[in-house]
Inverse folding.
């Protein structure tokens, strides 16, 4: 994986690019983080300018955009400007918006991903999907919410999964057969995560997603949807046209326990062969041991180091190395810990696209959670 850092249009822009044997790019990740405070409209224009410059530098067309995920410090007030940004792009993509303040005291940060083998793009309301030359259809469902203020997190989660099931039925697939990754957000995760866990487990038991079959790679984290009454929101990624034998569910039990040990239901990581590329989703990972216990309580440096040990173990178990990493999401309970964490992350994998946000983890004792992606060419 080729990585680098550029200073573009008043931003710090990082990229990772996966190339085939002929030196043609296949997958391109990038993060854009402004370096100075600006009004929201100006900050979006700054990000947009940096994005245009990095696309030009690598010869990437706008139509190659597959994913754009904005992290906002105030989504209710930023939403209109973000929608205007999307309208200006003249191409569609999975447009994810999450209220998780960037820890560098700016209003927005962007993580994007482009693919070179997209053939057609489609949209049906909040479902964006595209086809590729490998014959695989990629389906992204964004911003699933049930904003009924009378319902608790358990009920809202139950209904949200019901919405997802209905949307996937249009593609003749299901949660258990098609979904590879979910992101579940709660604005008050300390209070509402137990209800999310209960509802998800009840559903998974009903569709035979258990520790004897498999779960789904996931991150459950504090984050807002911009809807003041939504206790829970969810984004999901699914595929069709894929042989199930191409999917591998990854564990590293000598380092971190299976999730069911402490009552939750998600995969530590999932690897999938997508055409000519082997791709790895690493779920939100924290400083946890093989018994499911928090390690190094109260110490952000040691928790970060242990989390990276766990990520290395998952990479190794899946047949990947640190050099195959393509992106990081770093969630911090306390934004004041950024100065401790960033040097450790740079030491582990310098120049890798990374987003740092304030987002408390599902257990108060965890000070940091990291999710990651990795990819390599199938030889």
């Amino acid at each position: 994986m080729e990585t680098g850092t550029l200073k573009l249009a008043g931003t710090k822009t990082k990229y990772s690019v996966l190339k085939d044997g002929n030196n043609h790019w296949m997958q391109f990740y990038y993060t854009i983080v402004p370096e100075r405070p600006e009004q929201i409209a100006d900050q979006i224009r700054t990000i947009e300018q940096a994005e245009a410059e990095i696309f030009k530098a690598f010869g990437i067309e706008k139509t190659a955009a597959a994913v754009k995920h904005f992290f906002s410090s105030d989504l209710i007030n930023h939403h209109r400007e973000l929608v205007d940004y999307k309208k200006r792009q003249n191409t569609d993509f999975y447009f994810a918006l999450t209220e998780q303040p960037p820890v560098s005291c700016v209003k927005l940060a962007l993580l994007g991903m482009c693919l070179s083998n997209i053939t057609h793009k489609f949209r049906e309301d909040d479902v964006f999907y595209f086809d590729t030359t490998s014959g695989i259809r990629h389906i992204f469902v964004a911003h699933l919410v049930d904003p009924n203020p009378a319902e608790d997190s358990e009920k809202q989660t139950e209904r949200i999964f019901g919405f997802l099931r209905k949307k996937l039925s249009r593609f003749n697939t299901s949660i258990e057969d098609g979904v590879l990754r979910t992101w579940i957000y709660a604005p008050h995760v300390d209070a509402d995560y137990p209800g999310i866990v209960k509802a998800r487990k009840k559903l998974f038991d009903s569709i035979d997603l258990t520790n004897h079959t498999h779960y789904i790679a996931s991150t459950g984290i504090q984050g807002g949807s911009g809807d003041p009454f939504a206790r829970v929101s969810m984004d999901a990624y699914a595929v069709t046209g894929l042989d199930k034998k191409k999917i591998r569910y990854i564990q590293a039990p000598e380092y971190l326990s299976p999730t069911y040990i402490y009552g939750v239901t998600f995969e530590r990581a999932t690897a999938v062969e997508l055409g000519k590329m082997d791709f790895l989703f690493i779920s939100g990972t924290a400083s946890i041991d093989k018994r499911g216990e928090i390690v190094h309580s109260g110490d952000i440096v040691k928790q970060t180091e242990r989390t990276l040990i766990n990520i290395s173990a998952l990479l190794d178990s899946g047949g990947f190395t640190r050099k195959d990493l393509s992106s990081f999401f770093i969630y911090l309970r306390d934004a004041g810990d950024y100065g401790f964490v960033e040097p450790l992350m740079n030491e582990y994998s310098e120049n890798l696209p990374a987003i740092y946000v304030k987002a408390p983890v599902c257990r108060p004792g965890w000070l940091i959670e990291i999710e990651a992606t990795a990819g390599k060419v199938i030889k």
User: Anything to note?
Assistant: The CA atoms of residues 147 and 228 lie 8 Å apart. The mean pLDDT is 97. The two ends are 15 Å apart (CA to CA).
